[in-house]
Amino acid sequence: MSGGGITPTSAICLHRTTHEAHTFPLGDLVCIAEFGEPIYPTLKPIDSVCNAPDSDLWHTLIEADNYHALQLLEYLYAGKVDCIYIDPPYNTGARDWKYNNDYVDSNDAYRHSKWLSFMEKRLKLAKRLLNPKDSVLIVTIDEKEYLHLGCLLEEMFPEAHIQMVSIVINPNGVARDHEMYRLEEYAFFIYKGDAGPAMLADPLFTSDVAARKMGKAAEDECSHSQRTSVRWERLLRGGSNSNRSHSPGCFYPVYIDPIKRKIVEIGEAIGKEQDKESIPDKDGLVTIWPISEGRGEEKVWRTTPSNLRSLVQSGYAKVGAYNKNKDRWSLLYLGSKQRERIEDGQLAIIGRDENGVVIVEEAEEQVIKKFPKTIWNRQSHSAGEYGSRLIRAIIPGRDFSFPKSLYAVRDTLKTIVANKPNALIVDFFAGSGTTLHAVNLLNAEDGGHRRCILVTNNEVSEAEAKDLTKKGYKPGDPEWEKLGIARYVTWPRTVCSIEGHDINGNPLKGNYIGSDIPMADGFKSNCTYFKIAFLDKTEVALGRQFREILPILWMKSGCVGACPDMASPTPSVSLSADISPSLSIREGRGDNPYLFFPANHFAVLFDEASFSTFQWELHEQPQIQTVFLVTDYEVNYRAMKSKLHVQTTYQLYRDYLDNFRINHGRNER
Hints:
Oligomer: single chain
Number of domains: 3
Strand content: 15-25%
CATH superfamily of the largest domain: Vaccinia Virus protein VP39
Strand order of the largest sheet: 4-21-5-20-19-6-7-9-8-18
């Protein structure tokens, strides 16, 4: 529609080709950009979860059409992604969550070609995200489209090596009319550059029972070898049952020597009513209480004073890292599983440090590691048991059809990033959020620092869409949006899995399969939830949208620390010395010639005339390695860049505007 006229309550629109006039309520009109037109995206913060305030590891969830999100991600991370894992629509014709299956009607004679066109547009963008020297794209699929997908991947990635793995996701099988029972689905692995699978102790081939008989597993339902890195656990208890009131016998002081980094003495537990301030400090020692990192709540240690004394005497407890910014020490110990591994000979004590703490490594008779096989048969890969039921346990009453098993995704990622503890992983068909859950679990198991970016839309099921429409609601209304997949499933699951409880606040039960990690402990990680929005390029060019594009600068700098919020400046924002910190709504930066974000490791220069002062202050903050320089002139940008000794610089706002103006056309080629 185009042309026509507008009244205070309605609009008359003319069809572009027939010029037929139609009248619509003004509130029903939505501004759009045609497919292929340049867009200028930004990220609007919606929510965040922080369960590790001392960690700079922040994941991101982006609510958006994944095509537009991929355009944004290309600007942020072109050639920098280590692994892309996607579980796209299988094109089965199912009409539950549109995101999963219902892309093309099952009766459409052109459903395969339409699906391939849909996938091709997104894979072209995804390809440009991957590190050409060493990265992997993983695409799961079932029998409906695996042949067509395989041909498409061969055509799009002629330079890559491709393998297909069969994964048993339903051990009981699915009955089909006049067909054999189907047990498996498939995963294509596209290896770019020097990429290849990691060597694992468990080839993922034999059944769980057979694997246990072979001595390759210690857990009841998983064959993952426990002969991995030694895991020192935090002495501070996490989870919903960690408050002082739950275990008063585990609330006591620990005294350490900060110079020798040694546990010197362990006090006795104090009563429920006794104030910890009544317990005197000891000369020359630092007193550590079980206090939460975020809100300063009184928590408890994982063991009693007498047990901790025994652990210290045995060398199984030690002083951990010191956080200078928060003036906090951490305490670590070897949990029961790790001590059992020492007793069983799986771990060997090869010495002790100056404080008597054991130095432990894997015993010499390690399990031989091999490349995984191309048929995976695991009970823990069952989508029903460890996909659907797991989601129902975390978010009761919120069903999601066809979720992946958490452990199937964990193992799939592990085959690629086991040796990449700092990998960047992207999933732009995020669904229920299994990929981020799996990344957090993998990090918890091996001490990794992998970062995950999820992208999902916020569609509702077809039945819910019809019901909401009958009630007079439309997309964008709160009543509609709250039932969308991102807000109804993906984000609640992310928050609950990180914090270790269900949506009702009850602690999650049991341990994660293949590890000794209680679900109720959650994960020491953080995540920010954004929704994609779009800006006017003229407003950006005039510098009037800095506040709006700040989350993009944060992501482009590596998502270090919590995303800064210019609406209410925090100590993480360092302003120039004699400039008022007030921020105008129009420009988002006030009259400041530059801003430093030391906690986020980046800085922005707005006024070229202040470059000398900016350069001097930047020298005093070596943690800042990304700088955005606002200038319209390429020669000025290059001159300033040559004088800054940082890893990366960008020219604002030209870098942002040119990317989306130039690249939009080639996204269709």
